[in-house]
Write a structure and sequence with these properties.
globular; 178 residues; mainly alpha
Length: 178
C-alpha cells in the first residue's frame, strides 16, 4: 500500500488531498457503500483537476467534465444494495423521506431549522472552496472543503435519524430497512 500512496502522491503533482481521501476509503468500502464513496472520490478528483489546471491546461475541463458525468451516472453503475443497514443507505433514504412530506407527516422533532442551517453552511463552504480554487489558495480550498463536508455530514446524520424514526412509524418505510 505504501507504493500505491507514493505513486498517487507523485502522479498528482504532490497533492496530499487525493492521498488522504484514498487512505480514508481504504478498507471502508463495501458493496453497499461503494456508490457513496465513489462520489467522495470523484469530488477529490475534481478538486485535484481544478487545482492542477495550469499543469493540465485545457485537458482539465475534459477531465472535470468526465468526472461530473460519472457522478451523474454513478448510481446506475452499481446493483441495488444487499442491505440498507449502513449509514450511507440510511442517509439517502432519509433524504428521500424528507422530500416526501406530503405522503406521511414528518415528526415535529425533525421539522427544525437544522436542514436550512446545514444547507447555508454548505453554500458558504462551496463559496470558500470556489474562491480558494480560483486563487489557488490551499488554505481557503481546504477550509471550504472541510466546511462543506462537515455541514453535509451533519445534514446526512439528521437524515439517518429521520429514516430510523420513520421505519418505526410507517410500514412502507419499514420495508426499506433490510
Amino acid at each position: 500500500m505504501t507504493f500505491w500512496y507514493t505513486w498517487l502522491f507523485d502522479h498528482t503533482g504532490g497533492s496530499v488531498l487525493l492521498v488522504i481521501v484514498a487512505h480514508a476509503v481504504e478498507g471502508a468500502v463495501q458493496d453497499d457503500t461503494l456508490v457513496y464513496f465513489a462520489v467522495w472520490l470523484a469530488l477529490a478528483v475534481v478538486l485535484v483537476v481544478v487545482d492542477r489546471r495550469m499543469w493540465l491546461g485545457w485537458w482539465a475541463l475534459l477531465v472535470a467534465g468526465l468526472v461530473l458525468m460519472f457522478m451523474v451516472v454513478n448510481p446506475l453503475l452499481f446493483r441495488p444494495p444487499r442491505s440498507t443497514r449502513n449509514w450511507a443507505s440510511k442517509a439517502v433514504l432519509g433524504e428521500r423521506i424528507g422530500t416526501e412530506t406530503t405522503t406521511v407527516p414528518i415528526p415535529a422533532r425533525f421539522r427544525t431549522w437544522v436542514p436550512t442551517v446545514a444547507t447555508v453552511w454548505q453554500l458558504a463552504g462551496v463559496a470558500l472552496l470556489a474562491v480558494g480554487l480560483v486563487r489557488l489558495d490551499l488554505l481557503l480550498t481546504l477550509a471550504g472543503l472541510l466546511l462543506t463536508q462537515c455541514a453535509k455530514a451533519w445534514y446526512l446524520d439528521r437524515a439517518v435519524l429521520l429514516f430510523e424514526d420513520m421505519t418505526t412509524r410507517d410500514p412502507h418505510y419499514a420495508s426499506w430497512d433490510f
